[in-house]
Amino acid sequence: MTLIDKPDCTRLTMSTDLRRRDVLRQLGALGISGTIGQLYSGSLFAGPGKAATGLNRLVAGEVINREDDRYEAWRNSMVWHLRKPDRYPDTIIRAQSEQDVIAAVKYATDNGLKVSARSSGHNATGAALRDGGVLIDLALLRDVEIDAGQKTARIQPALWSEQLVREAGKHGLAFPAAHCPTVALGGYLLGGGAGWNHAHWGSVACYSIKSADIILAGGRKITASPDSYPDLFWALRGAGPGFFGVVTGMELQLYHLPQAIHTSMYISPLDNLQTVVDSLDDLNSVKDERVEILVLLMHNPQPPEDTNQAKTCMVGVNAFADTEEEAKTMLAPFANSGLAAASVFRLEYQPATFATLYNPENVDSGIGRYAVDNVWTDNPSQALLSLVEHFRTTPSTRTHVLCSYGVKPELRADACFSRIANHYVASYLLWNDAEADRTNLTWLKRANDLLEPYSKGTYINEIEATLFPERIKSSFSEESWKHLAELRKKYDPDNVFHSWLSYT
Ligand SMILES: Cc1cc2nc3c(=O)[nH]c(=O)nc-3n(C[C@H](O)[C@H](O)[C@H](O)COP(=O)(O)OP(=O)(O)OC[C@H]3O[C@@H](n4cnc5c(N)ncnc54)[C@H](O)[C@@H]3O)c2cc1C
């Protein structure tokens, strides 16, 4: 039984169910879905710097210095995938409370130490791991409180996407959280946030931050909102790993939970990509805003003998509707399109909930060595087509390319998030062996080069900032970039907080 099977396979049967799970497993393996960080031992490079030896007395959470036997295991656990950066903070503290964060930032400021923060460690470049200074791990700060009347949530930064969605769902509410269950809201929202149904729920997710508690240099706590520190509120919404403070809490706008989510899936051989993108161009121009289209160039988990089908294009369509009838109406144009006709496997009108969309049984651990880069584009068809031949040469079968079609572009004066086009294309590389790092990263560089003619800028949360530092700046407009630098000078004049990777 192969994944690519009959063209008329439209109903869920035992065998299609198995094949669907194979696909979902593959997606998990590809890192589309949830993964939980693993410990992995590497070697120490630089010698220890100035440890924050006095911190033990000031914070309730654990403090791990370089001399500690547990240091390397802790350091490695700060990044969820296995390609750990060779960067070594002098001290890692696992904050138990906001008070710990205040104490740690104050201590670092007073003692001339630099500070970085980490929520769930999903940043592909391990941005939170920096050389020297204090790394504040916020993983234990994961509370959530829903105010159903106000349709808001108060969250702590390390709350996972799936946890927020689950809690909000109990009150008939929802949030455009990340597609992967374990991505924390902290880093996700600071960089923008392109999650479930976000085109409908306020564009990028950071626009749904109503206020945030921030610990600034010196350990000063402020609350940023449209009425209080509006300049910091602006920076908070999009600065990503270049933010100059630690976010300890946020108030978020929630949305009505769709009562009838339905999904359809179409798989075609890569050779059919032209037909697929032609069809999607048409469908995208008429689709309901609540329809999310995700296109994946991926490797067939069970390649048939016909090697033509070893690389495939999968289109997932999610309709966030309120009745079954409405969902069917939203998905029908896809079922009647050239996309469906070109597919060799399809599974349509499947009822779903956020619990099934995030279902851990449908994904594998996905752990591997990882890299990602992306572009925003107004020309997704040409962008995807430009990658076809290159995709055939991926060094790892776990690698995939994702295109998020038709995200609603909206730029706002009250947020520094400043690069968005109508569509998003990202290359996600996952591989197993360190010896293959160079080959895979060379593949990524070539993919970036091929996409460049179609690029309208990059998304700060998913760039390979270590190898290609110029992509940090290309995530911002000239004005936003300049204004962020002014605000950094104003709020962190002594550079207590690390700036973006590759910047001091
Ligand atoms: C499997 C997977 C799935 C993903 N899915 C999506 C998706 O669907 N949509 C999407 O938009 N993105 C997605 N991402 C990307 C994700 O948004 C970024 O990797 C984001 O940086 C992760 O947040 P984090 O809190 O884990 O960051 P961390 O790795 O913990 O931190 C990264 C940096 O963010 C800053 N930071 C984090 N928390 C704080 C804080 N509380 N205060 C101050 N600074 C902080 C720091 O500068 C830190 O260096 C995904 C990533 C992975 C690995």
Beta-strand content bin: 15-25%
Described by the principal axes of the CA atoms, the overall outline is: globular
For the sheet with most strands, the description reads: 7 strands, antiparallel
Give me the CATH fold name of the largest domain: Vanillyl-alcohol Oxidase, Chain A, domain 3
**Helix and strand composition category:** alpha+beta
Bound molecules: flavin-adenine dinucleotide
Lateral arrangement of strands in the main beta sheet: 15-12-14-13-17-18-16
Helix content: 25-40%
Catalogue the unreliable spans.
Answer: 1-47
Chain oligomer state: single chain
Count of alpha and pi helical runs: 14
Q: End-to-end span in angstroms?
A: 54 Å
CATH C-level category of the largest domain: Alpha Beta
Corresponding CATH architecture of the largest domain: 3-Layer(aba) Sandwich
Radius of gyration: 22 Å
Number of strands: 18
Number of domains: 3
> What is the overall pLDDT average?
89
In short:
The chain has 504 residues and is of the alpha+beta class. The protein has three domains: 14-33 and 258-471, Vanillyl-alcohol Oxidase, Chain A, domain 3; 53-137, 2-Layer Sandwich (Uridine Diphospho-n-acetylenolpyruvylglucosamine Reductase, domain 2), CATH 3.30.43.10; 144-256, Uridine Diphospho-n-acetylenolpyruvylglucosamine Reductase, domain 3 (2-Layer Sandwich). Helices cover 28% and strands 22% of the residues.
Topology:
Elements (H helix, E strand, L loop, with lengths): L13 H16 L32 E4 L5 H7 L13 E4 L3 H13 L4 E4 L15 E4 L6 E4 L4 E4 L5 H9 L3 E2 L10 H7 L17 E8 L3 E5 L5 H7 L9 E8 L1 E2 L3 E10 L3 H14 L4 E9 L11 E11 L2 H12 L2 H5 L2 E8 L1 H4 L11 E9 L2 H12 L8 E6 L17 E9 L5 H15 L18 H4 L4 H14 L13
Parallel strand pairs: 2-4, 3-4
Antiparallel strand pairs: 1-2, 5-6, 6-10, 7-11, 8-9, 8-10, 12-14, 12-15, 13-14, 13-17, 16-18, 17-18
Helix pairs in contact: 7-11, 11-12
The protein binds flavin-adenine dinucleotide (FAD).
The site of flavin-adenine dinucleotide (FAD) has 33 residues, from strand 3, helix 5 and strand 10.
